[in-house]
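User: Could you write out the 3D structure of this protein bound to acetoacetyl-coenzyme A? I've included everything you need below.
Assistant: Certainly. Input first, then the structure.
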Amino acid sequence: MYTRTSTLLRTTKPFLRLMSTSAEPLVLASRSNNNNVAILTLNRPKALNALSSPLFDQLNQELTKADEDESVRAIVLTGGEKNFAAGADIKEMKDKQFADVYKNNFLGSWTRMSSIRKPIIGAVAGYALGGGCELAMLCDILLCTPDAKFAQPEITLGIIPGAGGTQRLTHLVGKARAMDMVLTGRRITGVEAAQWGLVSRVTKEGESVVEEAVKLAEQIAGFGRVATQAGKEAVNGALDLPLEQGLRLERRLFQQLFATQDQKEGMGAFSEKRKPTWTDQ
Ligand code: CAA
């Protein structure tokens, strides 16, 4: 069950009290004021939110729940105001053998997040390293603080990124910058990440990255769900498909939206100079 809270900054505390009788959850689930945004907060602060397998399992469960819940229209994923995530759990990985990671498809479950249909807004403060940077890149829109720290430091551990840090990163920032980050472990700040196109917005002095992400998610939650889902699918098509096929997907989705009530409502409301009321049909 999600908790509903009256202010954004109070979101996690009542939930913690509610959960105090059982094991501490590795992902806290709460809701925005309007109840239409699910806020998922990674909750391993002592390990800087290192992404252990149990944490990722819980994250996948919460993402699936939010995706299936009709009252949720957008999702915020965050590590809170201190750290997003310092990577996959090195202590869990250190003694693993090739045969096990290969047979069990280690990290394979991380890609489940890319099948979530609702928009996911990532809110990054502090460290987003290795798997943390890769998890951030699995979000649809990223916000961060100016001094957030993004890096793919796997090379310093004798490995390479294994959850998108060579692929998504290259799409986002280009080959030279991706090579620089992957081959040297170079850290970039939130400001640089915005200049490089890794994130879309950087918070201003005194702003809460989580609150800003929730505001953005609520703005998206205010639009019709069919068009929102189609927009996400079409933009993701740009990463997966050659241009001609991507353009065909976009045109097909665009044309299909003329079969929706929301298209009639949106254009009708514009003509009648009133606010549209979306029905998600
Ligand atoms: N895995 C497991 N534990 C981690 C961790 C990680 N990725 N990152 C931090 N921690 C733990 C530390 O072990 C420490 O725990 P203990 O107190 O029990 O020793 C706690 O979090 C606090 O960390 P530090 O004492 O190191 O804090 P710091 O402020 O001195 O340094 C840091 C912070 C620079 C982020 C440093 O912790 C660090 O370098 N972490 C590892 C970053 C990294 O290499 N990430 C990539 C992992 S590999 C990966 O992600 C592969 C992939 O593609 C999916």
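Residues 1-21 have pLDDT under 50 and may be disordered.
User: Perfect, thank you.
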